[in-house]
Specification:
The complex is a heterodimer of chains A (about 375) and B (about 425).
Chain A (H helix, E strand, L loop, with lengths): L8 E11 L5 E11 L3 E5 L6 H9 L6 E6 L2 E2 L10 E4 L11 H10 L5 H14 L15 H13 L5 E5 L7 H18 L2 E6 L2 H7 L2 E6 L2 E6 L1 H6 L4 H6 L4 E11 L2 E6 L4 E6 L8 E6 L18 E10 L3 E8 L2 E9 L12 E4 L6 E5 L1
Chain B lengths: L3 H4 L11 H41 L4 H6 L1 H7 L12 H16 L3 H9 L5 H12 L11 H7 L6 H9 L7 H6 L2 E4 L2 E4 L7 H32 L2 H16 L2 H12 L4 H8 L15 H25 L3 H9 L4 H29 L3 H6 L7 H10 L4 H25 L9
Antiparallel strand pairs in B: 1-2
The chains are: A alpha+beta (about 375), B mainly alpha (about 425).
Chain lengths: ~375, ~425
């Protein structure tokens, strides 16, 4: 639904930098633009600058340098309460001394809305998150999941066009979290609001977003739709951070268009897709997803390079098998196979040969 | 396990005893141990706190001294009509002499005189002087005594003397409480004290009003401090907390005396004001030995008791509440007033109760800086305990003070709710 090319940018970061102590940059040269209606997730380890970016957008932190624009207007000097941005906080921040209805009514009251109109909007917002019967309760009387819904309703009740969410599902258990992930995405798409969502949970990022911006070290490492991010990581950090990943280190021998020949450190040769390497002699880190590794010779391409591997451990995980191998001196090489009747269950100590399609094996920066 | 649950009888333990009994036995040892642990404190509190206070409270109504010292006289006075305007008959005088001779031997008569002197001035010297002469009389042979006594001191021929004696001969009296609210016990019932002796109601009112003023000043001065402490990084906050607690490390007397140095007419503040020309040399401000001085010094001394509970409550208020409020469109002021302030009320409540109750019973500071206009009811209690030795009145004043505090506490609970008080 988001197509950045033909819609004007709704939220824009231009060359934004942020420093707290005047010595270190927490956010280094951030450039980002997202169109109206997009669900963008900022993903990254803690300390990567993603929350700082969100707080700058909300107005609770000021950018040290650069420009943040909302709908074409620079908001650097607009105080938070005039930005009209909805926000869901990590701990929900529901006011404990007010009832649920009063909590929801608060943003409408400060907008000097009439009583009947307020009540109607509060009711509609509560119904939207299926909490219509809870208006008279206090936040402390609700479960974590219910509080989460109320926090969401409160951020939406004054109909902002942009909603920011700061790890809103962090405090919920796994099952509830998965349920809320879908509810939030559905709600956001139904209402057509733009969402900037911060999380350190990559599953959350992949399942919910239109696009994901991976943060590390104060920079966006890659910004792409989830499938691209997973299948075509542009550098080692993204490959490592998103999903499970096997890495092998080596030196580029030659590059022929779409295929690079890499000599691994133990001397073996493999075919890869050159991503971050340009010339022979460069060191590279080769990345292969566990589920793209093949050990059934019949399925391997004719003439493909194969590697010898020794099975170290076989883990039965129900829907899949996870097998740990020793490959080219790397003891942490993992392959995943679907639990199907025709799949061989490998035994520890077994010697096998593994291979993959050259385009699944990406030669990235060392 | 037994199946008695199904039959509806009491649940039984494995050995067949009722489960409740079995549980109680299991917990008994635990309870005894817990009791043993708190026993020293319990005994200490009982001996050093509850018993003395209890005995002090009983003094406020106890009036055994008249009936114990003059048993025959009190009995003989029963038949005398105090309103008749006539002197009691010879039997009363005879009984009085007999009682007095016994009392003089036991050296009790001067104590009785002191007691009656609270009610009527002159009684103390009357008993002391008459005692010397009555000592020489023989109750069995020297009668009749009416003329003799009037001869010894003509006060014994005054109806009023006997009326006072009869009025205060009861063993349980409301006299001290009446005195405590500027009234007196008379043969005609409770009556207002003469104007020039009415002081205690004023003192009670002053104590309450000034304690409230002190509490409010503490809230106004303490709230921003607590807010800053709660919002600073922990290291800095701890540093500043030491400054808040610093006054506790100095003697109360020293701090109060320091205010004397600051506020007096030749003091630091006045000198500075005169020096910069704000105040004329002959019109120096009077800031000490009055209510102003008391309020300033006590606000300073009690401020930490306000800041500490407010600080500990404010620490628990997450900063995201304010951010949430602002993100929803509230201005800084609205966010504070609608969100932060209501959440900090429990701290204000706890601090106010603490400061108010401490202030209402404060003694040293008003004594030193209060002068005559700034003293509290507790100074009066101390006066009656140590100077006038009218312990009954002191006890009655103390009891009233205690009752006032309890009533205010109850009212606070009704209005604000005591659950809303948090000390941390």
């Amino acid at each position: 639904m988001a197509d950045a090319s033909n819609v004007d940018a709704f939220v824009e970061f231009e060359r934004v930098q942020k420093s707290y102590d005047g010595e270190n940059l927490v956010v280094k040269d951030l450039n980002l633009s997202l169109p109206k209606g997009e669900f963008l997730t900022m993903l990254g380890p803690s300390g990567s600058g993603k929350t700082t970016c969100l707080m700058m957008l909300a107005g609770f932190e000021t950018a040290t340098h650069g420009d943040i624009r909302l709908d074409g207007v620079s908001i650097n000097n607009i105080p938070p309460h005039k930005r009209g941005i909805g926000m869901v906080f990590q701990n929900y921040a529901l006011f404990p001394h007010m009832t649920i209805a009063e909590n929801l009514s608060f943003p409408l009251e400060v907008r000097k809305m009439g009583k009947s109109q307020r009540e109607e909007k509060v009711k509609r917002a509560l119904d939207m998150v299926e909490m219509g019967a809870f208006g008279g309760r206090r936040p402390s009387q609700l479960s974590g999941g219910q509080q989460q819904r109320i926090a969401l309703a409160r951020a939406l009740v004054f109909e902002p066009e942009l909603v920011l969410m700061d790890e809103p599902l962090g405090a919920l258990d796994k099952q509830l979290r998965e349920k809320m992930q879908f509810e939030i995405t559905h709600l956001a798409h139904r209402l057509g609001i733009t969402v900037v969502y911060v999380t350190h949970d990559q599953t959350e990022a992949l399942t919910m977003s239109d696009r994901v911006a991976v943060f590390d070290d104060g920079r966006i490492q890659q910004i792409a739709p989830p499938d691209q991010l997973y299948e075509s990581p542009e550098n080692s950090f993204v490959a490592q951070f998103i999903g499970e990943n096997n890495t092998l280190e080596g030196v580029v021998k030659e590059i022929n268009g779409d295929v690079a020949l890499v000599q691994l450190d133990d001397g073996e040769l493999i075919d890869c897709k050159p991503v971050n390497v340009s010339k022979p002699g460069e060191r590279t880190r080769v990345s292969i997803r566990p589920e793209r590794v093949e050990y059934n010779k019949d399925r391997l391409q004719e003439g493909a390079h194969t590697l010898k591997a020794e099975v170290l451990e076989f883990i039965y995980m129900g829907d899949i098998f996870r097998t740990r191998l020793r490959v080219a001196g790397n003891d942490e090489f993992v392959i995943k196979t679907r639990n199907a009747p025709d799949v061989e269950r490998l035994q520890p100590g077994q010697q096998i040969e593994i291979g993959w399609l050259p385009e699944d094996c990406r030669a990235l920066d060392a | 396990m037994t199946d008695t649950t199904a039959s509806g009888g009491p649940v039984l333990a494995a050995d067949g005893t009722p489960l409740k009994k079995s549980l109680a036995r299991a917990l008994r040892l635990q309870k005894i141990r817990a009791l043993g642990l708190i026993a020293p404190l319990l005994i200490f509190v009982l001996v050093s706190f509850i018993i003395p206070i209890g005995s002090m409270l009983t003094r406020s109504v106890n009036n055994d001294i008249v009936a114990d010292t003059l048993p025959l006289t009190v009995e003989a006075l029963q038949t005398w009509d105090a309103d008749s305007g006539e002197l009691p008959d010879e039997a009363v005088y005879a009984a009085f002499v007999s009682d007095m001779v016994t009392a003089i031997e036991a050296k009790q008569h001067t104590r009785l005189g002191t007691r009656l002197n609270y009610e009527q001035t002159g009684m103390s010297s009357l008993f002391r002087k008459s005692g010397r002469k009555i000592k020489k009389l023989d109750p069995t042979t020297d009668g009749p005594f009416k003329e003799t006594l009037i001869g010894i001191n003509k006060s014994w021929g005054d109806v009023e003397t006997w009326r006072v004696l009869k009025t205060h001969s009861v063993r349980v009296t409301n006299g001290y409480f009446l005195n405590a609210i500027d009234m007196q016990r008379t043969p005609e019932g409770a009556q207002a004290q003469p104007e020039d002796k009415q002081i205690l109601i004023t003192l009670f009112q002053r104590t309450l009003v000034m304690s409230m003023v002190i509490t409010v000043s503490c809230i106004i001065l303490g709230y921003p401090v607590a807010w800053i402490l709660a919002n600073l990084p922990a290291r800095t906050a701890n540093m500043l907390m030491i400054l808040v607690l610093l006054p506790f490390w100095t003697s109360l007397l020293v701090r109060t005396s320091a205010w004397k140095v600051m506020l007096q007419q030749q003091g630091v503040i006045n000198e500075v004001l005169v020096w910069i020309g704000l105040v004329a040399d002959d019109a120096r401000l009077v800031m000490i030995n009055n209510q102003f001085g008391t309020i300033v010094a006590m606000t300073h001394i009690l401020l930490p008791f306000m800041i500490l509970p407010m600080y500990s409550v404010m620490q628990t208020i997450q900063p995201t509440y304010l951010r949430a409020a602002k993100s929803m469109g509230a201005t800084n002021w609205t966010a504070f007033w609608r969100v932060y302030f209501p959440l900090s009320v429990p701290g204000i409540g706890a601090g106010s109760i603490l400061v108010f109750i401490l202030a209402i019973g404060y003694y040293i500071t008003p004594e030193i800086v209060g002068g005559t206009k700034g003293v509290f009811i507790s100074n009066r209690i101390a006066y009656h305990i140590s100077s006038s030795l009218n312990w009954g009145l002191a006890a009655a004043l103390g009891t009233i003070l205690l009752a006032v505090v309890l009533i205010l506490y109850w009212a606070y609970d009704k209005i604000v709710g005591i659950d809303n008080v948090k000390l941390g």
